[in-house]
Structures are given as structure tokens and as C-alpha cells.
């Protein structure tokens, strides 16, 4: 079973900063990885699929990279609405675990 | 508009059963894999299981295997989660999710319902 780890657990930044979030898989998931954003009281929202493709309606400040076991979500110039929890999710092999999440909070 | 609406959550005693439903609209339901995802209060998101568009394949996380059953009725555009032998640790908001293939062969949850809360407690 593939295990995902995310770092850091919490990222304290100011609006306008760049956020760099990491996701590491215990074995290769090729490029079958997604990133989700979740705000309090809401369902997660798909941001990135296939490691580097933005989902429909997602602003260009969100970008994803990586393949195999190491992945990065970058948010350029944080907007106030970007402060949330971010999860990675592998879609390579069952079961399909999510990572533990990174909380991006206002510094 | 694409919409997923869950129902059926509530309070149930340990060892009890509950059936969740999800009604889909705005897309060709039988063309899509569908997934159940849950989130315990204040905890991380957990993939529970999914089902192929024609119902011919199903997969579950180990912690619910043998206790939970995913099914669908494509004529009613509906997805179900039958939960038996419920435990306190099954307490969570349960989300119904549409999985879309963007052409790479992998499927991603691009549409989520609002969730329904299941509380397992005596």
C-alpha cells in the first residue's frame, strides 16, 4: 500500500508570499497525483491533476510539478482566499490514500 | 450544472447499520466512476472506496472492507454506501465524489457533494 507524506504540516506565510508544499510517496505513483484545497466547512476542491495540470477554473498562480515519488505544489503570490489545507492524493494503485495535509495559515 | 447531493446520515449506535445515498444530476452518471470519501471531525480526508460506471468493479480501503458496500442504480442516477457493523471510528462526514478521466488513464475527483454526517455513538 502506498503511503503519502506531506511537508511541512503547517506553513505560516503572508499574502503575496510564495508557498511551496511537498508530497512524497512511499513508492512510485508515476504522475498519477492530484492536489486538493479544503477550506473550513467545505468539501475539498480539485486544483491539480496528473501532477501538473490545473483543473478547470483554477488560477494560474497554482502550479504542480514532480513525478515518481516527489511532488510539489507551488502557489505564487498568495491571495487571502488561498489560506486553507492542501492535500495530495495518489491515483496510481488501490487503495487510494490522501496525504495528511499541509495547512497554509496567515503569518 | 453538475450536482451531487448526499443524504442518509445521522446518529447510529455501535454495531448498527446505515445507508447513505447520493443523487447525481447534470452529467451522464453511468459513464463515471464514483467514490465515497470521508473526513472525521478535525481529521484528514480518507478515501473509502469507489465503483465503476457499470458497477462491475469496486474497491475499498482495508478499514471498511467487509463492512461497507458501495452500489449504484444508474437508472436513478444514484450512488449508495451501505454501512454495517459501524464503529465509533466511522464517525465522519461522508462525501460523494465524481471521478473524471482527463485522458491520462487516471481518474480524479472533480466534483464533490456537500457531505452528510454520520455519528456512531451510544
Brief description of this entry?
With about 110 residues, chain A is mostly beta strands.
Please give the structural blueprint.
The complex is a heterodimer of chains A (107) and B (122).
Chain A lengths: L3 E4 L2 E4 L5 E7 L7 E6 L6 E5 L3 E2 L7 E6 L2 E6 L9 E6 L11 E5 L1
Parallel strand pairs in A: 2-10
Antiparallel strand pairs in A: 1-3, 3-8, 4-5, 4-9, 5-6, 7-8, 9-10
Chain B lengths: L2 E5 L2 E3 L5 E8 L7 E7 L5 E7 L6 E3 L7 E6 L4 E6 L8 E10 L5 E6 L3 E5 L2
Parallel strand pairs in B: 2-11
Antiparallel strand pairs in B: 1-3, 3-8, 4-5, 4-9, 5-6, 7-8, 9-10, 9-11
Give a structural overview:
The complex is a heterodimer of chains A (107) and B (122). Chain A has 107 residues and is mainly beta. Chain A has strands at residues 4-7, 10-13, 19-25, 33-38, 45-49, 53-54, 62-67, 70-75, 85-90, 102-106. In chain A, the strands form 2 sheets. A 6-stranded mixed sheet of chain A has the order 2-10-9-4-5-6, with no helix packed on it. A 4-stranded antiparallel sheet of chain A has the order 1-3-8-7, with no helix packed on it. Chain A starts with a strand and ends with a strand. The mean pLDDT of chain A is 96. Chain B has 122 residues and is mainly β. The interface between A and B is medium-sized, with 27 and 23 residues.
Amino acid at each position: 500500500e502506498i503511503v503519502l507524506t506531506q511537508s511541512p504540516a503547517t506553513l505560516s506565510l503572508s499574502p503575496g508570499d510564495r508557498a511551496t508544499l511537498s508530497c512524497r510517496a512511499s513508492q512510485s505513483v508515476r504522475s498519477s497525483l492530484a492536489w486538493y484545497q479544503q477550506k473550513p466547512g467545505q468539501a475539498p476542491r480539485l486544483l491539480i491533476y496528473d501532477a501538473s495540470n490545473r483543473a478547470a477554473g483554477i488560477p494560474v498562480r497554482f502550479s504542480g510539478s514532480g513525478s515518481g515519488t516527489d511532488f510539489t505544489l507551488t502557489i505564487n503570490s498568495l491571495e487571502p482566499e488561498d489560506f486553507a489545507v492542501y492535500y495530495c492524493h495518489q491515483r496510481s494503485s488501490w487503495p487510494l490514500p490522501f496525504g495528511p495535509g499541509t495547512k497554509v495559515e496567515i503569518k | 450544472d453538475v450536482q451531487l447531493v448526499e443524504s442518509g446520515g445521522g446518529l447510529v449506535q455501535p454495531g448498527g447499520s446505515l445507508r447513505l445515498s447520493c443523487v447525481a444530476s447534470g452529467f451522464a452518471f453511468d459513464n463515471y466512476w464514483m467514490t465515497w470519501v470521508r473526513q472525521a471531525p478535525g481529521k484528514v480526508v480518507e478515501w473509502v472506496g469507489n465503483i465503476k460506471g457499470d458497477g462491475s468493479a469496486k474497491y475499498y480501503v482495508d478499514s471498511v472492507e467487509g463492512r461497507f458496500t458501495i452500489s449504484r442504480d444508474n437508472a436513478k442516477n444514484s450512488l449508495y454506501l451501505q454501512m454495517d457493523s459501524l464503529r465509533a471510528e466511522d464517525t465522519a462526514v461522508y462525501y460523494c465524489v465524481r471521478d473524471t478521466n482527463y485522458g491520462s488513464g487516471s481518474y480524479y475527483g472533480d466534483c464533490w457533494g456537500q457531505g452528510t454526517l454520520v455519528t456512531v455513538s451510544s
